[in-house]
Amino acid sequence: MDVQRWDDMYRSRDQVFSGNPNGVLVAEADGLPPGRALDVGCGEGADARWLARRGWQVTAVDVSEVALRRAAATATAGIGERVTWTRADLTATPPPAGAFDLVSSQYFPLRRRPDHAALRGLLAAVAPGGTLLFATHSPADLAQHQEEGFDPADYYQPDDIAPLLGPAWQVLINESRPRTAQAPAGTHHTHDTVLRARRLT
């Protein structure tokens, strides 16, 4: 991943995102019993803080040191003790296998590869009985950005992931739904695509 590009983006503003947790995470994880969570591409840390307030022990990972410093600075006492802020590129180095009861990937730009190596690393990180929660922008929304040199087909959608799960998984949700929060500034995202799956073994 282009670490410099992400650092520059976070340096460009005092706060890039709203500071609120992602709506898909709130909707899908609110009823889960707390355990160990992996926040993939944590950015400024809103999702990690939300999970920590609900009793989760969170490993919050991002490639941007700028984002991680900002996230750690906004974590209050008690919450900060439940979150480990970690700089890593999960597309190159997989997380520990079977280590997490929740792997949450919210709008993380996971590029498709023929061997699916990075994706398989995230799947393997889910412990038996744990949950994979993957959310991204709908293909129709992403298509608006093709003129910027961005091809949505280069990145995973839930429909790409679900067939790769196999009998060890139970797919609970694979759908497109209207966004529950305002789209980021300068974008026109109206729908999310969401995959929620439980690892059986």
From TrEMBL:
Keywords: Methyltransferase, Transferase. It comes from the Bacteria. Pfam families: Methyltransf_25 (PF13649). Residues 38-130 form the Methyltransferase domain. GO terms for molecular function: methyltransferase activity. The keyword RNA-binding does not apply. GO terms for biological process: methylation. This is Methyltransferase domain-containing protein. It comes from Streptomyces johnsoniae. The lineage of its organism: Bacteria, Bacillati, Actinomycetota, Actinomycetes, Kitasatosporales.
